[in-house]
Amino acid sequence: MPIVEVQNLCKEYLGSKALENVNFKVEDGEVFAVIGPNGAGKTTLLRILDFLDKPTSGKIYSNGVAIDYSEKALLALRRRIAIVFQQTVLFNTSVFKNVAYGLKIRGENKRNIRKKVMEVLQLVRLQDFERKNALDLSGGEAQRVALAQALIIEPELLLLDEPTANLDPKNVSIIEEVLSWINKQQKTTLIMTTHNMTQAQNLANKVALLFNGKIKKIGPAKEIFLAQSRYLADFARIENIFIGISKVTRDGISLIEIGNEVQIDAAFQKSGKVTVYVRPEDIILSKTPIASSARNVFKGRIVEMIDIGPVMKLKVNAGKEFVVQVTRRSFNEMQLNIDSEVFLVFKASAVQAV
Amino acid sequence: MKNIVKITVVLILLVATAFSGTLTFGYIVQPSERSSLAVLVENDKNLLNPYGVIPVNTEKHPQANFDLAVAFVKFLISEEGQNLITDVKKDGESLFFPFAHNFTLAEALGFPNQKQEVEWYNSQTAFNIFSQWEPLLLATTTSTYESGLLDFLIPVFERKFNVRVYTISVGTGQAIEIAKRGDADVVLVHSRELEEAFVREGYGVHRVGLMYNDFVIIGPGNDPAGIKKVVNATEAFREIAEAGAEGKALFISRADKSGTHLLELKMWSQLGIQPSTGHYAWYLEAGASMATVLRMSSEKQAYTLVDRGTWLSKRKELSTPVLEGFFNAIKLIVSFNPEVVSITFLSLGVSGVAVLLGAVLSIPLGALLGWRSFRGKKPIVNLVGILSRNIVNTFMGLPPILVGLVVYLIFSASGPLGPLELLYSPTVMIVAQLIMVIPIIAGITMSAVGSVDKAIREKALSLGATEWQTMFIVLREARIGILTAMVAAFGAAISEVGGIMIVGGNIRWHTRVLTTAILYETELGNFGLAIALGIVLLSLAFVVNLILTYLQLKGVKR
Predict the structure, then answer these.
(1) B66-71 contact pairs (CB < 8 A, 24+)
(2) How far is A307 from chain B (nearest CA, A)?
(3) Which of A12, A154, B164, B302 would you label with B464, given CA atoms 20 to 30 Å apart?
(4) Hey, where are the domains in chain A?
(5) What is the per-residue pLDDT for B30?
(6) How far is Cα B286 from Cα A3, in angstroms, rounded to an integer?
(7) Fold: same for A2-232 and A239-353
(8) pTM of the entire structure?
(9) Which helix (H) or strand (E) holds A210?
(10) Better pLDDT: B381 or A122
(11) CA-CA distance, B429 to B498, in Å (whole number)?
């Protein structure tokens, strides 16, 4: 019997569809990865599975039993499920109390709590951190505490919303090891969302591709990865994704209005409503406008910087937000900072339609 | 750390400014540059001022402590009491002249039944045992307190009968109003008309004459209206009005329904002058105590009518430089003056208890209202939530004096909670401050709870917390905001003056707190004590704000 089964799940927010006719089954002990770009509806799906949100329509079965949304039933269900959010949330108190919380509210005795907190902190390799205030930790350490918080209640189902997004490689590998260990040793079922392909490939045995609230493909991980490798690689890493109205010009290229008076030139010929993306590595970043054959040049300001080891991800607001990648070395040489003015350059052929 | 440095610098600058200001002010304002006030008209039979004493009638107000009131009057008209009255002296001169047993004089002064009343009191059997928990509430005029008479009489009476006397000193008219509502047991005032009406309407019984003092007309020593040469007080008033019309003189009226005010009005009406119409630029209506009016007269070089007792005890202070007041203040503080200490502790106690009780009541209220903003499922629940949040926010700006007025009316003897007999007690002061701090604590708690990240609540829920457990963790996350709420409420409560004045009555040793004492002592011209209390209040506010800053610095960590 599947631990979770979802039938015709729909969720609407203010009239727009966040999820549309989603169907899947997750068996006990499986690792189910939902892959999709930002805004595909992954977080919405996980919130519904943790019963933090109610679906607009559709059914959810837990161990074969349909969910009725009474407070009492929800409490009982939530006590068997844990979730790790993408945005790390911790209580403003010590690491120990943070991790102990789930057991404390279940009325566990102090000696057991202490023993289990220590075990679980050891598991996420934070054994000396119990006295620290949780808000003083680095991003990676905080996310590991959040994981420990979820693990201590020994959930039968663990939901993970992009658990390693924006973390450095060391923290990513610790978290992945822990996830793999609890799935193999404790037979915990995992449902995770990610856009990290390697992660999905390493951990998952079932994969769904979610796009615009709809499941595009679903199946055993091996099949999906074998058949779809190129498509999948692009799909999962889609970051600069824009929806706009395209017009084909006489020279055979397309002009796409993507809002905020931003216009992109694309090498394909398509008119009407299109969804396009530009890979971050295809965008060149410079401090001054450079003469080139590239058709797309935008001026903008850096609004966010994410450190992922040797590479820096930058969010640039140029009317619309673009994500670009630069190596740490060029980043330092160019003396970039938040609010620095920069130019974005990419070729019309770098613009891909979905 | 930076903030602490900033605070220190600002504080040093502030103290330096205040100190240099005091120095300059103290030296520049030389009292001798002006014509100092002097007695210009005295020893006029129109200016004799008899005091009557009347217990409150138990038929109107059954809760009045009639037995103790009778004992008090009996004490005042006894030989011992009458001798004590003569002993109240200033600069070797008696301030009051007892006449309880001089029936002829009493009749001339407006007490035709003096003989019968004295006999009635003498026929009352001796009262010796009184409950210590039922103090005597005496409503009297400011003149009896300001002259030092009460400080002289009351301790003797209290020791004799082992009881407490609480004194409310206001104008005669107000004292009688208070007694009419049943908020006093006995009145000691000076206005024949009001006293007789008080008895006639059945509020008081056994009006008996006690003593008299006399009034004098004072004014600037150079006497611009030239009243020194006239023969009686009425003529003097006419001269003042005439000089006033020419713009050469000013007259300051108490304008507070006090006996002094009523006497003054009587004299104007004998002259056919109605000064209280706003048409006369020379006639200033102060609405203040005698000491304040004396100071105003000195500052504005004006004429006024004053009882000799207050004049004798206050005339020196009129020329006291401010600097001296400052040094007196320091002396009072470093010597742990018992009155300053008692006032400080009462302030801390009343405001502290009000804030603690307020916290118990309004943290759950604020939490509930803040919590609702998380949820809001049904529109009707939402509407009620929005309305109650608006109400709380509105009441955060509630004027304390309005709270004081409402609480006063409720707890007044003729009000709905009158039978509790709590008016003029620290308890009712706590009640008034409680009403003031509840919206403050609830309001800040509400926004603190409302601004806790929604994710915290979801985190707790997802870890299996019940709704109560979730609410508790949200409250814990909002703890800095809640502490801030309590500190802010305490700061507001301890520095509030209007409300606590009305309901507490500013009774010495009993309900006098820092703010009411500062107000009162300033009115009396006791600048030393006023400044000392001001320094204490400022220090308390400083400590409170230091705590607040510390909490906020700690909160920045988030």
Answers:
(1) B66/B185, B67/B127, B67/B130, B68/B127, B68/B130, B68/B134, B68/B136, B68/B161, B68/B163, B68/B185, B69/B136, B69/B185, B69/B186, B70/B121, B70/B124, B70/B127, B70/B206, B71/B127, B71/B130, B71/B161
(2) 21
(3) A12
(4) 2-232, 239-353
(5) 42
(6) 84
(7) no
(8) 0.66
(9) strand A206-211
(10) A122
(11) 11
Among candidate residues B246, B245, B215, B243, the one with its CA nearest the CA of residue B227: B243
> What is the helix (H) or strand (E) element at residue B408, kind and residue range?
helix B400-411
| Overall average pLDDT of the A248-275 stretch | 85
| CA-based nearest residue in chain B for residue A104 | B465
The tokens describing B87, both together, are 């002993």
Q: Which of A78, A85, A102 sits opposite B455 (nearest CB)?
A: A85
Q: What is the fold of A2-232? A: Rossmann fold (3.40.50)
Q: Is the pLDDT higher at A211 or at A110?
A: A110
pLDDT digits (tens, 9 = 90+) for B242-286: 999 898 999 999 988 888 898 899 899 999 888 888 788 899 998
Model confidence band, residue B22 (pLDDT cutoffs 50, 70, 90): low
Instruction: Please indicate if any CB of chain A lies within 8 Å of the CB of B451.
Output: no
Torsion of CA B488, B493, B498, B500, to 10 degrees: 170
In tens, the pLDDT along B33-68 reads 567 888 888 888 888 889 999 999 999 888 888 989
Q: Is B370 helix (H, G, I), strand (E, B) or coil?
A: helix
What's the pLDDT score for residue B557?
Answer: 47
- DSSP for B222-234, written as a single string: T-TT--TTSSSHH
Write out the H or E segment, with its range, that includes residue B96.
Answer: none
Nearest to A92 among B462, B464, B477 (CB): B477
Tell me what the pLDDT averaged over chain B comes to.
85
Kindly report the nearest CA distance between residue B473 and chain A, in angstroms. 8
Helices (H), B322-337: 322-334
H or E segment to which residue A53 belongs: none
For the cut 90, the answer to whether the pLDDT of residue A6 exceeds it is yes
Query: Residues for chain A: how many in total?
Result: 354
User: Which chain B residues are Cβ-neighbours of A108 within 8 angstroms?
Assistant: none
Interface confidence (ipTM) of the complex = 0.71
**Residue-wise DSSP of B159-218:** HHHT--EEEEEE-HHHHHHHHHTT--SEEEE--HHHHHHHHHTTSB---EEEEEEEEEEE
Q: Does B477 contact A91 at a Cβ distance shorter than 8 Å?
A: yes
Indicate whether B24 pLDDT > 60: no
Domain A239-353: top CATH class? mainly beta
CA distance A75 to chain B (A): 6
Q: What element of type H or E holds B97? A: strand B97-98
